[in-house]
Amino acid sequence: xxxxxxxxxxxxxxxxxxxxxxxxxxxxxxxxxxxxxxxxxxxxxxxxxxxxxxxxxxxxxxxxxxxxxxxxxxxxxxxxxxxxxxxxxxxxxxxxxxxxxxxxxxxxxxxxxxxxxxxxxxxxxxxxxxxxxxxxxxxxxxxxxxxxxxxxxxxxxxxxxxxxxxxxxxxxxxxxxxxxxxxxxxxxxxxxxxxxxxxxxxxxxxxxxxxxxxxxxxxxxxxxxxxxxxxxxxxxxxxxxxxxxxxxxxxxxxxxxxxxxxxxxxxxxxxxxxxxxxxxxxxxxxxxxxxxxxxxxxxxxxxxxxxxxxxxxxxxxxxxxxxxxxxxxxxxxxxxxxxxxxxxxxxxxxxxxxxxxxxxxxxxxxxxxxxxxxxxxxxxxxxxxxxxxxxxxxxxxxxxxxxxxxxxxxxxxxxxxxxxxxxxxxxxxxxxxxxxxxxxxxxxxxxxxxxxxxxxxxxxxxxxxxxxxxxxxxxxxxxxxxxxxxxxxxxxxxxxxxxxxxxxxxxxxxxxxxxxxxxxxxxxxxxxxxxxxxxxxxxxxxxxxxxxxxxxxxxxxxxxxxxxxxxxxxxxxxxxxxxxxxxxxxxxxxxxxxxxxxxxxxxxxxxxxxxxxxx
Length: 615
Known about the structure:
Layout: E1 3-7, H1 8-18, E2 19-23, E3 26-29, E4 31-36, H2 46-52, E5 59-60, H3 65-78, E6 84-89, H4 93-96, H5 99-108, E7 112-118, E8 152-156, H6 162-173, E9 181-187, H7 188-191, E10 194-198, E11 205-207, H8 216-227, E12 232-236, H9 239-242, H10 246-256, E13 260-262, E14 277-280, H11 287-295, E15 298-302, H12 308-311, E16 323-328, H13 331-334, E17 340-343, H14 346-353, H15 364-385, H16 395-404, E18 411-414, H17 419-426, E19 435-437, H18 446-457, E20 463-468, H19 469-474, H20 478-484, E21 490-495, H21 500-508, H22 531-537, E22 541-545, H23 548-558, E23 565-570, H24 595-614
Parallel strand pairs: 2-11, 4-5, 4-6, 6-7, 7-9, 8-9, 12-13, 12-15, 13-14, 15-16, 16-17, 18-19, 18-20, 20-21, 21-23, 22-23
Antiparallel strand pairs: 1-10, 2-3
């Protein structure tokens, strides 16, 4: 057997560079590169190994470890999980800064390979700088934090262990059902140790998604349930994108007369002009989709986790006779809430249903009602985004102005606060993939870094990041990275001077406005934050605009800018779109001296009764 002597880090990098995939029929590198911030624990080992292959296997440097992991995750999502990136950090805070991003990837079922530095395997210099010591377990390090938020975790304490660990990592990262973050904690001394590796270990391998076909019994049960339905509804989730079957889903819906509603992850996948597309579903849903959900007697849930925002905390589906078919590649998701599980790749599952459903259509009146509701909702949405005569614009009015100034192929990126709700209802993607929301973990700070990852994956598309002032202040450093890498973003900062979304939630639960808006925090002086000047200090072009007309013009200018442009606009924190939406289970105290809380509790208990009866 022919071998080659390499350090563990050199062998790891060489292995990753050899992994391949196919995109649109073309063979390409599976890993688009590695994000790295070096420190003790990875600079001498994996840092030296990456330097050797820097021309063929790119290394990108960011300014925050969490942010660079967000960028890697966003890249994978934009690439429909066909391609991915790795992330390496030092031991200690560099590593633990990745934990939030690992949780985000875990919740959203997205692949990212995390390579944090770790303690010395030989333990001779213990405790090393930044080492977390457990008084009762000498094997514990800070990287054990990754265990609950990784699909696969391993600590590499000998150089030959990667011969087993890397193929296992790849199997998880590329598996449609198991897909999620993988953490390989790399003991820093082991990174530099040499081993005679088989040359065959580095042979190129092409990874393609597994297409699971449905069980015949599950298929028969699902087809029978569909044939018996009088008011079926398709719930389209992110799995439709990852199975690359949006056209097939659209054709299935049209052929059988079944309306389609979209989750946050599923929005923008089906063609926006589909005649039965009801739009967003759930707490942030359209009136059209939510009316259909309330009446539906069968839900065909395709590639969705059925999270609480989609289901209105399981109070949205009010037909007592309703049934669920869970068409999902992951059995855990397929069987949720007593669903008829149809475990399969979404494309394979829809194709398999063609024969048993041949000639069947839902009652014509059901589809006709959906079409009427779609037309009604579009008018409501247009009214919500139309400029109104007020001192400060609403988020919806800002969304309307931004959308009017963008081309059809633009991608909007967002993650947390009030904006995801308004975007889910109102944004009209002009082309598939034009809606990129991280709402599984709803992580403040994802937005700008996520936009960077999307632009890496789709450099030919206009990428616009919409972000509130709260999220901007949490994580804005990758503005500088976007300029450093020549990846031009349009960033629109909506400044409502606090956490306006949570303030509305607080008041909706009967609470007093407290500690969310800057004005209601403990303070001696309120900060006069100049977001325009701050963005300029990071190297961006920046403007502050005075109204919607100026905003629309600024977005058009940003499309021609030579580098990232940040546009700041003041907005009204109190206004949200009243049309559409559904109840969300946010607990209200049972006992309070405040009359407002007691009233909110009474309303909450009424909704809870509907929730229980609905289940």
